[in-house]
Specification:
Oligomer: single chain
Number of helices: 3
Order of helices and strands: HHH
Largest sheet: none
Helix content: 55-70%
Strand content: under 5%
Radius of gyration: 14 Å
Structural class: mainly alpha
């Protein structure tokens, strides 16, 4: 639950939720994805996770839980 003093906006949770689905399928069914596609998925998620924790005033809970969920 958010208890901060700054407003929240955005749809990053939905985007990371979709990337989480791609991550699941890339790990579960690696033959369905080319090596370049798997690398793109892993790098894109890694960059997003790093930026989530580096850039101030971003709520990390939604991004992390959408990737996991």
């Amino acid at each position: 639950m958010y208890t901060g003093s700054y407003p929240l906006a955005g749809l990053s949770g939905a985007g990371y939720g979709l990337l989480g689905i791609y991550l699941f399928y890339a790990l579960r069914f690696p033959a369905k994805f080319s090596p370049q596609n798997r690398k793109f998925i892993f790098v894109f998620i890694a960059i997003g996770m790093v930026l989530t924790f580096v850039v101030p005033n971003i709520t990390y809970a939604s991004v992390v839980y959408d990737d996991v969920g």
